[in-house]
Amino acid sequence: MMRTVTATRYVTPLREGGSLPAIVEAEDAGLYVLKFRGAGQGPKALIAELIAGELARAAGLRVPELVFIQLDPVLGRAEPDGEIRDLIKASAGLNLGMDYLPGSITFDPLAGPAPGAAEASGIVCFDAYVTNVDRTPKNPNLLVWHQTLRLIDHGAALYFHHSWEGHLERARSAFAPIKDHVLLPWASELRAAEAHLRERLTPEVLEQVVGLIPDGWLEEAEAGFSSKAEHRAAYVAFLKERLASSAVFIQEAERARAQLV
To answer: HipA-like kinase domain: from which residue to which, for each copy (predicted)?
Structure first.
């Protein structure tokens, strides 16, 4: 189960993010990076963040704690920036937050520290599974915190849900963007990572994670879904089919890596 907290103070925007996330303080005195439901791709980005983040955790990868954050638009009244005020107003209600990691730095493949083969392979395999296009040398979306890697920012994953037509067919496809993955040079144990992923992400785990999606983030009329249950079932079906077809995206990752090393 994920926790739900209420934002009590808007601290500062994180302007390096395209969707203008922000650091907020919550009722538990914790600081969180808030991803706004009213920004960018809207609820779909939050759904991708939620599913990918919690599946990564289930797979044994390090992800900062995710929480649901209740946001009252009154927090934006004193904000001088009109864009931020509008964003807060458009995101009233339930949003997604990630534990803020003070002192963390962005992973630099040149500066290191270099990950071990098992960890790099696990992250590459997972990103190919969830079709995450946003883990490149220019934008690694990896933080180094206490000398360990933490995975962040999965809003660009699962991009199939922006157009549901043929989603199961696309679940069986290779993932060509894996060639640009920042950790691919170190990912020499992809077959072992694939076996681990298939072992950890059971059908029960997939259903539990998809079941976390709040009703308010789903639009059941989209692509002809008759209910929110049917909408969730479509996510589960994609994730199951993608995992069953893991040999396809692992072969693509191995081929891409062979051209690098």
So the answer is: 13-225
Q: Return the CA Rg of the chain.
A: 18
d(CA 210, CA 239): 10
Domains held by the chain: number: 2
**Contact (Cβ atoms closer than 8 angstroms) between residue 78 and residue 241:** no
Binned at pLDDT 50, 70 and 90, residue 57 comes out as: very high
* Residue with tokens 């994953």, as numbered in its chain: 157
Residues 221 and 146 in one domain: yes
Closest listed residue to residue 238, CA positions, set 176, 158, 163, 183: 158
Give the single-character DSSP code of 173: S
Q: How confident is the model at residue 17 (pLDDT cuts 50, 70, 90)?
A: low
The least confident of 36-45, 49-58, 94-103, 208-217 is: 36-45
220 pLDDT more than 70: no
Task: Determine if the pTM surpasses 0.85.
Answer: yes
Structural domain for 66, as ranges: 4-99
Q: In degrees rounded to 5, what are phi and psi of residue 64?
A: -55, 150
Q: Which two tokens stand for residue 256?
A: 């891409």
DSSP state of 142: E
Residues 57 and 167 in one domain: no
Do both 87 and 128 map to the same domain? no
Domain boundary among 99, 119, 145: 99
Q: Are residues 216 and 145 in the same domain?
A: yes
Domain stops at, among 99, 128, 159: 99
| DSSP state for residue 108 in the 8-state scheme | B
* DSSP label at residue 166: T
